[in-house]
Amino acid sequence: MVDDNKRTNRFPSNAAKKVLVLMALAPLLNACHGSSPASPAKFKAALQVYYDRHPACLALALTLPVEIEKSGIEPMQAQLLALAKAGVLTAVAKPANRIRYIVAPGQENVLHPEHDSFFGGMDLCFARRIIVKIDSFTAPSQVAGQTVSQVGYEFKLHGSAAWASSPAIVKAFPAIRAALRKPQARAVATMVLTPAGWRRQQTPR
């Protein structure tokens, strides 16, 4: 005959099973709702941290320094000349009617290799993004082992460089002109919950 006490010890009651399930789920619940719960304030702060490190830039299919013929056909010749007139590049005359363009001293934060690009190129940075408000966000969910949320937000461009509005730049870079004409816009970002809080997901351009 099996002793009832032994049967009870071997097979936990329903109440005990519920406790065990809650204990197993506790880390996940804490990750989603613990130290960094989803909220507009936390998403706004996290996005601002990201954009303080990633200003508004235009990707250029260009590697510097570059040397071209003055009278030759160069796809980026008009843009190079405009950047030189704006003081972002320095043009150095070379023999055989050639000209060499390099980043002007002190302009390394304006024109530099793309940080997030897989294929190379240069970033021409002309303004900062300021997060105005969070419009919406989805409930945090598990995707590929990460807790993520899709966040809709509004931002505005602030502190645009003086050279960005110069006639030569406006003509050579219509994308910059269009961005400055509409300084406030909406966007959507994927936010990932990390041990340090929410972070904007980075994707190669």
Concise description?
By secondary structure, the chain is of the alpha+beta class. The protein has helices at residues 4-10, 14-33, 40-53, 77-85, 167-172, 174-181, and strands spanning 56-60, 66-69, 89-94, 98-103, 111-113, 122-137, 141-143, 146-158, 184-194, 197-200.
Number of domains: 2
Q: Biggest β-sheet: count, sense, barrel?
A: 7 strands, antiparallel
Number of strands: 10
User: What would the principal axes of the Cα set say about the shape?
Assistant: elongated
Mind telling me the C-alpha Rg? 27 Å
- What's the end-to-end separation, in Å? 71 Å
Structure notes:
The structure is a single chain. The protein has 205 residues and is α+β, with helices and mostly antiparallel strands. The chain has six helices and ten strands; from the N terminus they run αααββαββββββααββ. The model is unreliable at 1-11 and 16-34 (pLDDT under 50).
Describe how the helices and strands are arranged:
Layout: H1 4-10, H2 14-33, H3 40-53, E1 56-60, E2 66-69, H4 77-85, E3 89-94, E4 98-103, E5 111-113, E6 122-137, E7 141-143, E8 146-158, H5 167-172, H6 174-181, E9 184-194, E10 197-200
Features:
205 residues, alpha+beta, 2 domains, 6 helices, 31% helix, 35% strand, elongated
